[in-house]
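Ticket #4471: structure export looks truncated?
Reporter: QA, pipeline team
Priority: medium

Steps to reproduce: submit the single chain below to the structure queue and open the exported record.
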Amino acid sequence: MQSFDFYNPVHIVFGEGRIKNLATLVPAGSRVLVLYGGGSVKKNGTLDEVNSALAGFTTFEFGGIEANPGFETLMRAVELVKAEKIDFLLAVGGGSVLDGTKFVAAASVYEGDDPWDILTSFGAKITAALPLGAVLTLPATGSEMNNGGVITRYATHDKLFFGSNKTFPKFSILDPVKTYTLPPRQVANGVVDAFTHVMEQYLTYPADAPVQDRFAEGLLQTLIELGPKVIATPHDYQVRANLMWAATMALNGLIGAGVPQDWATHMLGHELTALYGLDHAQTLAVVLPSMLQVRRADKRAKLLQYAERVWGIREGDEEARINAAIANTREFFESVGVKTRLPDYSVGREAIDRVLGQLEKHGMTQLGEHRNVTLATSRQVLESCF
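Actual output as written to the record:
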Protein backbone atom coordinates (compact mmCIF):
# COMPACT_ATOMS: atom_id res chain seq x y z
CA MET A 1 0.00 0.00 0.00
CA GLN A 2 1.15 3.51 -0.82
CA SER A 3 1.57 6.26 1.77
CA PHE A 4 -1.42 8.56 1.98
CA ASP A 5 -3.21 11.36 3.79
CA PHE A 6 -6.92 10.87 4.36
CA TYR A 7 -9.02 13.85 5.42
CA ASN A 8 -12.79 14.11 5.26
CA PRO A 9 -14.57 16.54 7.60
CA VAL A 10 -18.09 16.25 6.14
CA HIS A 11 -20.92 15.76 8.62
CA ILE A 12 -23.41 13.33 7.06
CA VAL A 13 -27.02 13.65 8.23
CA PHE A 14 -28.82 10.59 6.84
CA GLY A 15 -32.47 9.58 6.90
CA GLU A 16 -36.05 10.55 6.20
CA GLY A 17 -37.15 13.97 7.37
CA ARG A 18 -33.70 15.26 8.22
CA ILE A 19 -34.10 18.53 6.29
CA LYS A 20 -35.56 20.00 9.47
CA ASN A 21 -32.07 19.75 10.98
CA LEU A 22 -30.97 22.68 8.78
CA ALA A 23 -32.08 25.02 11.53
CA THR A 24 -29.22 23.84 13.73
CA LEU A 25 -26.71 22.86 11.05
CA VAL A 26 -26.48 26.30 9.43
CA PRO A 27 -24.63 28.77 11.67
CA ALA A 28 -26.98 31.13 13.48
CA GLY A 29 -27.35 34.55 11.87
CA SER A 30 -26.12 33.43 8.46
CA ARG A 31 -27.19 35.11 5.25
CA VAL A 32 -27.89 32.01 3.17
CA LEU A 33 -27.96 31.56 -0.60
CA VAL A 34 -29.90 28.46 -1.63
CA LEU A 35 -28.71 27.16 -5.01
CA TYR A 36 -30.57 24.62 -7.13
CA GLY A 37 -30.98 23.36 -10.67
CA GLY A 38 -33.83 23.16 -13.13
CA GLY A 39 -36.71 23.54 -10.72
CA SER A 40 -37.62 19.95 -9.76
CA VAL A 41 -36.90 20.82 -6.11
CA LYS A 42 -39.71 23.38 -6.38
CA LYS A 43 -42.17 20.94 -7.95
CA ASN A 44 -41.58 18.12 -5.47
CA GLY A 45 -41.72 20.30 -2.38
CA THR A 46 -38.09 19.95 -1.33
CA LEU A 47 -37.40 23.66 -1.65
CA ASP A 48 -40.46 24.43 0.49
CA GLU A 49 -39.09 22.11 3.19
CA VAL A 50 -35.72 23.83 3.01
CA ASN A 51 -37.24 27.29 3.29
CA SER A 52 -39.41 26.19 6.20
CA ALA A 53 -36.35 24.84 8.03
CA LEU A 54 -34.51 28.12 7.35
CA ALA A 55 -37.39 30.34 8.50
CA GLY A 56 -35.17 32.04 11.06
CA PHE A 57 -32.49 33.00 8.53
CA THR A 58 -32.13 35.65 5.85
CA THR A 59 -32.27 33.63 2.63
CA PHE A 60 -31.85 34.21 -1.09
CA GLU A 61 -32.30 31.83 -4.03
CA PHE A 62 -30.35 31.11 -7.18
CA GLY A 63 -31.78 28.58 -9.65
CA GLY A 64 -30.90 27.35 -13.10
CA ILE A 65 -27.61 25.53 -12.49
CA GLU A 66 -27.20 23.19 -15.44
CA ALA A 67 -26.76 19.41 -15.41
CA ASN A 68 -23.21 20.24 -16.46
CA PRO A 69 -22.77 23.37 -14.33
CA GLY A 70 -21.75 26.30 -16.47
CA PHE A 71 -19.05 28.79 -15.57
CA GLU A 72 -21.08 31.62 -17.03
CA THR A 73 -24.15 30.74 -14.93
CA LEU A 74 -22.13 30.29 -11.75
CA MET A 75 -20.46 33.66 -12.13
CA ARG A 76 -23.94 35.24 -11.93
CA ALA A 77 -24.33 33.48 -8.58
CA VAL A 78 -20.98 34.90 -7.52
CA GLU A 79 -22.26 38.41 -8.32
CA LEU A 80 -25.33 37.77 -6.14
CA VAL A 81 -23.16 36.50 -3.27
CA LYS A 82 -21.10 39.67 -3.34
CA ALA A 83 -24.06 42.01 -3.75
CA GLU A 84 -26.05 40.53 -0.86
CA LYS A 85 -23.06 39.80 1.39
CA ILE A 86 -23.92 36.09 1.54
CA ASP A 87 -21.90 34.16 4.10
CA PHE A 88 -23.29 30.61 3.74
CA LEU A 89 -24.19 28.58 0.63
CA LEU A 90 -26.69 25.70 0.56
CA ALA A 91 -26.81 23.38 -2.45
CA VAL A 92 -30.17 21.66 -2.95
CA GLY A 93 -30.01 19.07 -5.71
CA GLY A 94 -27.65 16.53 -7.23
CA GLY A 95 -23.95 16.48 -7.91
CA SER A 96 -24.08 19.23 -10.52
CA VAL A 97 -25.62 21.70 -8.08
CA LEU A 98 -23.09 20.65 -5.46
CA ASP A 99 -20.17 21.03 -7.87
CA GLY A 100 -21.42 24.43 -8.92
CA THR A 101 -21.90 25.56 -5.34
CA LYS A 102 -18.34 24.56 -4.47
CA PHE A 103 -17.09 26.68 -7.33
CA VAL A 104 -19.23 29.64 -6.22
CA ALA A 105 -17.87 29.22 -2.69
CA ALA A 106 -14.31 29.54 -3.96
CA ALA A 107 -14.88 32.10 -6.71
CA SER A 108 -16.77 34.47 -4.40
CA VAL A 109 -13.66 35.12 -2.32
CA TYR A 110 -11.05 34.56 -5.02
CA GLU A 111 -8.48 37.34 -5.07
CA GLY A 112 -6.98 36.62 -8.48
CA ASP A 113 -7.85 38.40 -11.71
CA ASP A 114 -9.89 35.62 -13.33
CA PRO A 115 -11.87 32.95 -11.42
CA TRP A 116 -11.41 30.62 -14.40
CA ASP A 117 -7.89 30.17 -13.03
CA ILE A 118 -9.49 28.04 -10.32
CA LEU A 119 -10.27 25.50 -13.03
CA THR A 120 -7.09 25.75 -15.07
CA SER A 121 -5.10 25.18 -11.88
CA PHE A 122 -7.40 22.27 -10.92
CA GLY A 123 -8.12 24.05 -7.65
CA ALA A 124 -4.52 24.76 -6.66
CA LYS A 125 -5.18 28.51 -6.59
CA ILE A 126 -8.01 28.22 -4.06
CA THR A 127 -6.86 29.76 -0.79
CA ALA A 128 -10.27 30.33 0.80
CA ALA A 129 -13.95 29.53 0.27
CA LEU A 130 -17.30 30.37 1.79
CA PRO A 131 -18.78 27.62 3.96
CA LEU A 132 -21.38 25.44 2.26
CA GLY A 133 -23.81 22.66 3.02
CA ALA A 134 -25.95 20.37 0.90
CA VAL A 135 -29.33 18.73 0.67
CA LEU A 136 -28.81 15.83 -1.75
CA THR A 137 -31.62 14.78 -4.08
CA LEU A 138 -29.77 12.62 -6.60
CA PRO A 139 -27.30 9.88 -5.59
CA ALA A 140 -24.54 9.65 -8.17
CA THR A 141 -21.40 11.73 -7.95
CA GLY A 142 -20.35 11.55 -4.30
CA SER A 143 -19.92 15.34 -4.39
CA GLU A 144 -21.81 15.53 -1.09
CA MET A 145 -18.82 14.01 0.72
CA ASN A 146 -15.80 15.14 -1.29
CA ASN A 147 -14.03 18.39 -2.11
CA GLY A 148 -14.12 18.31 -5.90
CA GLY A 149 -16.25 19.45 -8.78
CA VAL A 150 -16.37 19.68 -12.57
CA ILE A 151 -17.33 22.91 -14.33
CA THR A 152 -18.04 23.58 -18.02
CA ARG A 153 -17.27 26.74 -19.94
CA TYR A 154 -19.79 26.44 -22.73
CA ALA A 155 -18.31 29.20 -24.87
CA THR A 156 -15.10 27.22 -25.35
CA HIS A 157 -16.29 23.61 -24.73
CA ASP A 158 -13.94 23.29 -21.78
CA LYS A 159 -14.95 20.94 -18.96
CA LEU A 160 -12.42 20.92 -16.12
CA PHE A 161 -12.07 19.42 -12.66
CA PHE A 162 -11.07 21.25 -9.50
CA GLY A 163 -10.62 20.21 -5.89
CA SER A 164 -9.50 21.77 -2.62
CA ASN A 165 -9.74 21.01 1.07
CA LYS A 166 -11.40 24.43 1.33
CA THR A 167 -14.44 23.18 -0.61
CA PHE A 168 -15.61 20.24 1.47
CA PRO A 169 -19.25 20.72 2.51
CA LYS A 170 -19.68 21.40 6.22
CA PHE A 171 -22.59 18.97 6.18
CA SER A 172 -24.74 17.03 3.73
CA ILE A 173 -28.30 15.92 4.35
CA LEU A 174 -29.15 12.63 2.64
CA ASP A 175 -32.86 11.81 2.66
CA PRO A 176 -33.61 8.80 0.41
CA VAL A 177 -37.25 9.85 0.11
CA LYS A 178 -36.11 12.85 -1.94
CA THR A 179 -35.05 10.43 -4.72
CA TYR A 180 -38.50 8.88 -5.19
CA THR A 181 -39.61 11.25 -7.93
CA LEU A 182 -36.41 11.15 -9.99
CA PRO A 183 -36.85 10.13 -13.64
CA PRO A 184 -35.55 6.59 -14.37
CA ARG A 185 -32.85 8.04 -16.63
CA GLN A 186 -31.34 10.04 -13.76
CA VAL A 187 -31.50 7.08 -11.38
CA ALA A 188 -29.80 4.82 -13.93
CA ASN A 189 -27.16 7.47 -14.54
CA GLY A 190 -26.50 7.56 -10.82
CA VAL A 191 -25.89 3.82 -10.71
CA VAL A 192 -23.44 3.99 -13.64
CA ASP A 193 -21.70 7.05 -12.23
CA ALA A 194 -21.12 5.45 -8.83
CA PHE A 195 -20.00 2.16 -10.38
CA THR A 196 -17.45 3.89 -12.59
CA HIS A 197 -16.14 5.97 -9.69
CA VAL A 198 -15.32 2.76 -7.88
CA MET A 199 -13.73 1.22 -10.97
CA GLU A 200 -11.43 4.21 -11.52
CA GLN A 201 -9.97 3.68 -8.05
CA TYR A 202 -10.06 -0.13 -7.98
CA LEU A 203 -9.30 -1.52 -11.42
CA THR A 204 -5.67 -0.51 -11.85
CA TYR A 205 -2.96 -2.89 -10.61
CA PRO A 206 -2.45 -4.80 -7.34
CA ALA A 207 -1.07 -2.61 -4.54
CA ASP A 208 -1.35 -5.03 -1.59
CA ALA A 209 -4.32 -3.07 -0.23
CA PRO A 210 -6.91 -5.72 0.70
CA VAL A 211 -9.01 -3.33 2.79
CA GLN A 212 -9.53 -0.96 -0.13
CA ASP A 213 -10.00 -3.82 -2.60
CA ARG A 214 -12.62 -5.64 -0.55
CA PHE A 215 -14.44 -2.41 0.21
CA ALA A 216 -14.48 -1.50 -3.49
CA GLU A 217 -15.64 -4.98 -4.50
CA GLY A 218 -18.44 -4.81 -1.95
CA LEU A 219 -19.61 -1.48 -3.38
CA LEU A 220 -19.54 -2.88 -6.92
CA GLN A 221 -21.53 -5.95 -5.91
CA THR A 222 -24.02 -3.76 -4.06
CA LEU A 223 -24.53 -1.54 -7.11
CA ILE A 224 -24.99 -4.59 -9.35
CA GLU A 225 -27.60 -5.93 -6.94
CA LEU A 226 -29.38 -2.60 -6.53
CA GLY A 227 -29.29 -1.47 -10.18
CA PRO A 228 -32.44 -3.24 -11.44
CA LYS A 229 -34.27 -2.70 -8.13
CA VAL A 230 -33.90 1.08 -8.03
CA ILE A 231 -35.49 1.29 -11.48
CA ALA A 232 -38.27 -1.21 -10.76
CA THR A 233 -39.22 -0.05 -7.24
CA PRO A 234 -38.79 3.73 -7.04
CA HIS A 235 -40.55 4.01 -3.66
CA ASP A 236 -38.64 1.28 -1.85
CA TYR A 237 -36.96 3.22 0.95
CA GLN A 238 -34.32 0.60 1.74
CA VAL A 239 -33.27 0.23 -1.89
CA ARG A 240 -32.99 3.99 -2.37
CA ALA A 241 -31.20 4.40 0.97
CA ASN A 242 -28.59 1.82 0.06
CA LEU A 243 -28.04 3.32 -3.38
CA MET A 244 -27.62 6.77 -1.84
CA TRP A 245 -25.03 5.55 0.64
CA ALA A 246 -23.18 3.43 -1.95
CA ALA A 247 -22.86 6.43 -4.27
CA THR A 248 -21.54 8.55 -1.40
CA MET A 249 -18.99 5.95 -0.34
CA ALA A 250 -17.85 5.46 -3.93
CA LEU A 251 -16.12 8.85 -4.00
CA ASN A 252 -15.47 10.15 -0.50
CA GLY A 253 -11.76 9.33 -0.66
CA LEU A 254 -11.82 6.17 1.43
CA ILE A 255 -11.43 3.42 -1.17
CA GLY A 256 -8.89 5.49 -3.10
CA ALA A 257 -6.57 6.07 -0.14
CA GLY A 258 -3.21 4.36 -0.57
CA VAL A 259 -3.94 2.81 -3.96
CA PRO A 260 -3.20 3.84 -7.57
CA GLN A 261 -6.04 5.54 -9.41
CA ASP A 262 -6.87 5.78 -13.10
CA TRP A 263 -9.49 8.44 -14.14
CA ALA A 264 -8.72 8.16 -17.86
CA THR A 265 -12.32 7.11 -18.53
CA HIS A 266 -13.53 10.31 -16.88
CA MET A 267 -11.16 12.52 -18.85
CA LEU A 268 -12.42 11.16 -22.18
CA GLY A 269 -15.98 11.30 -20.89
CA HIS A 270 -15.67 14.96 -19.91
CA GLU A 271 -14.65 15.89 -23.44
CA LEU A 272 -17.59 13.97 -24.95
CA THR A 273 -19.99 15.78 -22.65
CA ALA A 274 -18.47 19.18 -23.38
CA LEU A 275 -18.60 18.62 -27.14
CA TYR A 276 -21.85 16.69 -27.57
CA GLY A 277 -23.92 17.32 -24.46
CA LEU A 278 -24.19 13.69 -23.41
CA ASP A 279 -25.02 12.99 -19.77
CA HIS A 280 -21.87 12.42 -17.74
CA ALA A 281 -22.86 8.84 -16.90
CA GLN A 282 -23.68 8.11 -20.53
CA THR A 283 -20.12 8.95 -21.52
CA LEU A 284 -18.77 6.72 -18.75
CA ALA A 285 -20.93 3.80 -19.88
CA VAL A 286 -19.57 4.25 -23.41
CA VAL A 287 -15.91 4.70 -22.53
CA LEU A 288 -15.29 2.32 -19.61
CA PRO A 289 -15.83 -1.05 -21.36
CA SER A 290 -13.68 0.10 -24.28
CA MET A 291 -11.02 1.45 -21.92
CA LEU A 292 -10.82 -1.92 -20.16
CA GLN A 293 -10.62 -3.76 -23.47
CA VAL A 294 -7.86 -1.60 -24.96
CA ARG A 295 -5.81 -1.56 -21.74
CA ARG A 296 -6.37 -5.15 -20.69
CA ALA A 297 -2.66 -5.97 -20.69
CA ASP A 298 -1.82 -3.27 -18.13
CA LYS A 299 -4.86 -4.16 -16.05
CA ARG A 300 -4.62 -7.93 -16.41
CA ALA A 301 -4.14 -8.91 -12.76
CA LYS A 302 -6.91 -6.64 -11.53
CA LEU A 303 -9.26 -7.66 -14.35
CA LEU A 304 -8.88 -11.29 -13.31
CA GLN A 305 -9.51 -10.34 -9.69
CA TYR A 306 -12.54 -8.30 -10.73
CA ALA A 307 -13.87 -11.20 -12.80
CA GLU A 308 -13.64 -13.64 -9.90
CA ARG A 309 -14.56 -11.52 -6.89
CA VAL A 310 -17.22 -9.26 -8.38
CA TRP A 311 -18.77 -11.40 -11.11
CA GLY A 312 -17.95 -14.89 -9.79
CA ILE A 313 -16.22 -15.86 -13.04
CA ARG A 314 -13.86 -18.78 -12.34
CA GLU A 315 -14.22 -21.01 -15.40
CA GLY A 316 -12.22 -20.76 -18.61
CA ASP A 317 -8.72 -19.53 -19.38
CA GLU A 318 -7.55 -16.07 -18.33
CA GLU A 319 -8.42 -14.37 -21.61
CA ALA A 320 -11.92 -15.80 -21.55
CA ARG A 321 -12.46 -14.65 -17.97
CA ILE A 322 -11.31 -11.13 -18.80
CA ASN A 323 -13.57 -11.05 -21.86
CA ALA A 324 -16.53 -12.15 -19.74
CA ALA A 325 -15.86 -9.54 -17.05
CA ILE A 326 -15.75 -6.72 -19.61
CA ALA A 327 -18.86 -8.05 -21.34
CA ASN A 328 -20.69 -8.26 -18.00
CA THR A 329 -19.77 -4.64 -17.27
CA ARG A 330 -21.25 -3.49 -20.56
CA GLU A 331 -24.35 -5.65 -20.08
CA PHE A 332 -24.88 -4.25 -16.58
CA PHE A 333 -24.93 -0.69 -17.88
CA GLU A 334 -27.33 -1.69 -20.65
CA SER A 335 -29.55 -3.52 -18.13
CA VAL A 336 -30.31 -0.28 -16.27
CA GLY A 337 -31.02 1.51 -19.53
CA VAL A 338 -27.73 3.31 -20.21
CA LYS A 339 -26.43 2.62 -23.72
CA THR A 340 -22.75 1.86 -24.26
CA ARG A 341 -21.92 2.82 -27.85
CA LEU A 342 -21.47 6.31 -29.30
CA PRO A 343 -23.86 5.68 -32.23
CA ASP A 344 -26.58 5.09 -29.60
CA TYR A 345 -26.30 8.83 -28.91
CA SER A 346 -26.07 9.86 -32.59
CA VAL A 347 -22.35 10.64 -32.28
CA GLY A 348 -20.34 9.88 -35.41
CA ARG A 349 -16.70 9.02 -35.99
CA GLU A 350 -15.77 12.66 -36.44
CA ALA A 351 -15.92 12.76 -32.65
CA ILE A 352 -12.62 10.90 -32.41
CA ASP A 353 -10.47 13.72 -33.76
CA ARG A 354 -12.51 16.37 -31.95
CA VAL A 355 -12.09 14.65 -28.58
CA LEU A 356 -8.39 14.07 -29.19
CA GLY A 357 -7.98 17.75 -30.01
CA GLN A 358 -9.61 18.74 -26.73
CA LEU A 359 -7.52 16.24 -24.76
CA GLU A 360 -4.37 17.74 -26.25
CA LYS A 361 -5.60 21.27 -25.54
CA HIS A 362 -6.14 20.38 -21.88
CA GLY A 363 -2.83 18.57 -21.47
CA MET A 364 -4.50 15.15 -21.12
CA THR A 365 -1.83 13.30 -23.07
CA GLN A 366 -0.45 11.03 -20.34
CA LEU A 367 -3.44 9.61 -18.50
CA GLY A 368 -4.06 6.56 -16.35
CA GLU A 369 -2.39 4.92 -13.38
CA HIS A 370 0.84 4.40 -15.35
CA ARG A 371 0.62 7.76 -17.17
CA ASN A 372 0.87 5.81 -20.42
CA VAL A 373 -2.54 6.55 -21.92
CA THR A 374 -1.28 8.68 -24.77
CA LEU A 375 -3.36 10.30 -27.47
CA ALA A 376 -2.73 7.19 -29.57
CA THR A 377 -4.18 5.02 -26.81
CA SER A 378 -7.13 7.37 -26.40
CA ARG A 379 -7.75 7.07 -30.14
CA GLN A 380 -7.89 3.27 -29.82
CA VAL A 381 -10.38 3.59 -26.98
CA LEU A 382 -12.61 5.99 -28.89
CA GLU A 383 -12.51 3.80 -32.01
CA SER A 384 -13.65 0.91 -29.84
CA CYS A 385 -16.70 2.93 -28.73
CA PHE A 386 -18.39 2.41 -32.10
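Status: closed, not a bug. The export was complete when the record was re-opened. Leaving a note from the reviewer for reference: Residues 210-232 form the longest helix (23 residues).
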